[in-house]
Amino acid sequence: MASTRAIPRRRIQASRPISETQSDYSDAYCEECESGDSAAVLLLCDKCDRGFHIFCLRPILVSVPRGSWFCPSCSKLKNFTSFPLVQTKIVDFFRIQRSSDSCNKLNQDNRKRRKRACSLVVSKKRRRLLPFHPSENPSERLEQMASLATALIATKTEFSNDLTYMPDMAPRSANCPNLEQGGMQVLSKEDTETLNLCKNMMDRGEWPPLKVVFDPQEGFTVEADRYIKDLTIITEYVGDVDYLKNRENDDGDSMMTLLSASNPSQSLVICPDKRSNIARFINGINNHTLDGKKKQNLKCVRFNVSGECRVLLIANRDISRGERLYYDYNGYEHEYPTEHFI
User: Residues 6 or more apart from 16 whose CB is under 8 A from it?
Assistant: First the structure.
């Protein structure tokens, strides 16, 4: 299995322009640890001028952002407005297509598929992926979708549940699994059917039982809203597809490896900063500590799905209701700096 998350090359803080009336900021220090060390990753708020190390912030930053930056006290993120629990607004926001006939057929297919999946898991040596089970209560589903809409709006992200190919980025034709260094695991026919079932359910408003919550330490994060079984497909990691070479100096902290090609110029990443789904808000573990590793309940796997590279987040153990979701950002590459993660 290929399981990786990419990060662009680390940058150092750009020096602020200093005029004759400005100080040289040599006495700047971090408001959290009260140290002026590690100046290269000491940010100064563009509003109040207070300093913070990127690893002392909660939630932390993995790299120095380009452009203006505001500290937690000055940031508008903490003042986000919850999305209204109005069905028509939620349906419009997520562009949900629903009809009575299609819903009845979907429910029948879903029940049939669930029974088949369970029998295959028991009878076959190779365990099959399982479709998620949506919450049965319609009010709970509305709350789940509203929580995601709240997070997307607060982060100025457009909802998308598919990989997107934008002008001046990598074209769809560049997404070729045959270019993967060492080859890429092919998603089986049965598991592809399960993935398509999950996609169809979401198109009709039958969503995975997940809720986005805001934590002052971790920022937006995702928790299970009902029991989730091991090997359940949680979501696909989506966003704009671009060449890694175009993003090496990008300050995005959520880029994901899509294709690790033998020729580095052909390698692709998923960039969820403009368009994405709930995967963007699932946090990573601190894989430098035993406690951090124990929190992991998802695995991130890249598959060849019908001739296209795709990234899936899959439960790697049973998950209880109320448990937050975490996966290892590094996989096999060990490039993502997680040592300061909570």
Answer: 22, 25, 44
Tens place of pLDDT for every residue, the chain, 342 residues? 444 444 333 323 333 433 333 445 668 888 888 888 888 888 888 888 889 888 888 777 767 777 778 887 777 555 678 889 899 999 999 999 865 544 454 455 555 544 444 444 444 457 899 999 999 999 999 999 999 999 999 889 999 999 999 999 999 999 999 999 888 999 999 999 999 999 999 998 899 999 999 887 778 999 999 999 999 999 999 999 999 999 887 766 678 899 999 999 999 999 999 999 999 999 887 676 777 778 899 999 999 999 999 999 999 999 999 999 998 876 655 455 555 555
Other CB atoms within a 10 A radius of the CB of residue 210 amount to 23
Sheet holding 240-243, edge to edge: 240-243, 268-271, 256-259
Q: In a 3-state reduction of DSSP, which class is residue 85?
A: coil
Question: Quick check: pTM over 0.85?
Answer: no
Q: Within a 10 A sphere around the Cβ of 175, how many other Cβ atoms? A: 18
Instruction: Give the sign of the dihedral formed by CA 188, CA 194, CA 198, CA 199.
Output: positive
User: Could you tell me the CA-to-CA distances from 19 to 16, 22, 193 in Å, in that order?
Assistant: 10, 5, 62
C-alpha 340/C-alpha 54 separation (Å) is 9
